[in-house]
Amino acid sequence: QKEVEQNSGPLSVPEGAIASLNCTYSDRGSQSFFWYRQYSGKSPELIMSIYSNGDKEDGRFTAQLNKASQYVSLLIRDSQPSDSATYLCAPQGASGGSYIPTFGRGTSLIVHP
Amino acid sequence: DVKVTQSSRYLVKRTGEKVFLECVQDMDHENMFWYRQDPGLGLRLIYFSYDVKMKEKGDIPEGYSVSREKKERFSLILESASTNQTSMYLCASLRGSGANVLTFGAGSRLTVL
Predict the structure, then answer these.
(1) pLDDT tens digits, residue range B45-104?
(2) CA of B29 to nearest chain A CA: how many angstroms apart?
(3) Spatial distance between the Cα atoms of B78 and B2, rounded to a whole number of angstroms
(4) Phi, psi of B11 (to 5 degrees)
(5) Do B90 and A98 touch (CB under 8 A)?
(6) Most exposed residue of A24, A96, B33, B44, measured as fewest CB within 10 angstroms of its CB?
(7) What is the distance between the alpha carbons of residues B112 and B16, in angstroms, rounded to a whole number?
(8) Rounded to an integer, what distance in angstroms lies between the CA atom of residue B92 and that of residue B102?
(9) Percent helix / strand / coil, chain A, rounded to 5
């Protein structure tokens, strides 16, 4: 069973602060790593992807990957109330040539004014 | 933009009824997935398909079946609905090569009475 672990939260941060979301995964065959954001009552939407060790920045978002430690994180700088959502970590492995996305349970983020 | 359409946004069914959840994508994606999402349990994979007439069990296939007669359509079937199948059901599709980003439908909230 492939495991993806996230702290369910809620993680509460003040507006303007840095929110740090963490994820560990068990499948060493995972090749791609995705962060999805899900607002209450809505479907998940992709916000970041990372494939190589190190950092990847996109606007206020930075994804960090350490394959040796099987750890991926998402940093949100200058957090805004509109960032309040559940963030899903999704390492992606392969089975028989198909890519099988597996999700963590998600971390609930609350950004308060 | 890729569009994934789920036929029913809200359904209410009775125990023992047969339930069909339909999903259609318009971007010629090879891979399609059915997840269910429950509070505290995250997204759990029910079934997936990587080609027409092909299907693979996910993590929680019991009580469900699927059909993929055409590339664009992936149906989830509950042969005899039970109250523990009350949940949000999310369909997603993914291209078979290149960027492995899931695109989700809006979801179908099923209540079984």
Answers:
(1) 999 998 999 999 999 999 999 999 999 999 999 999 999 999 999 999 987 666 578 899
(2) 12
(3) 27
(4) -135, 145
(5) no
(6) A96
(7) 9
(8) 6
(9) 5, 60, 40
Element (H, E) at A36: strand A32-38
pLDDT digits (tens, 9 = 90+) for A38-80: 999 899 999 999 999 999 999 999 999 999 999 999 999 999 9
Peptide bond into A101 cis (omega under 30): no
Please tell me the distance from the alpha carbon of residue A6 to that of residue B52, in angstroms, as a whole number.
34
B54-59 CB contacts, 8 Å cutoff, 24+ apart: B56/A95, B56/A96, B56/A98, B58/B33, B58/B34, B59/A1
Count other Cβ atoms within 10 Å, centred on residue A33: 24
Which residues in chain B are contacts of A99 at CB distance < 8 A? 31, 94, 96, 100
How long, in residues, is chain A?
A: 113
In the block, residue with structure tokens 């607002």: A39
Q: How many Cβ pairs closer than 8 A exist between chain A and B?
A: 57
H or E stretch covering B73 = strand B73-78
In chain B, which among 72-91 make CB contacts under 8 A with chain A? 90
Q: Are B31 and A99 in contact (CB under 8 A)?
A: yes
Answer whether A100 sits within 8 Å of B48, measured CB to CB: yes
**From CA A92, how far away is CA A72, in angstroms rounded?**
12
Q: Which residue has the tokens 């991926």?
A: A72
| Longest alpha-carbon distance in chain A | 47
Closest residue to A103, CB basis, from B42, B50, B96: B42
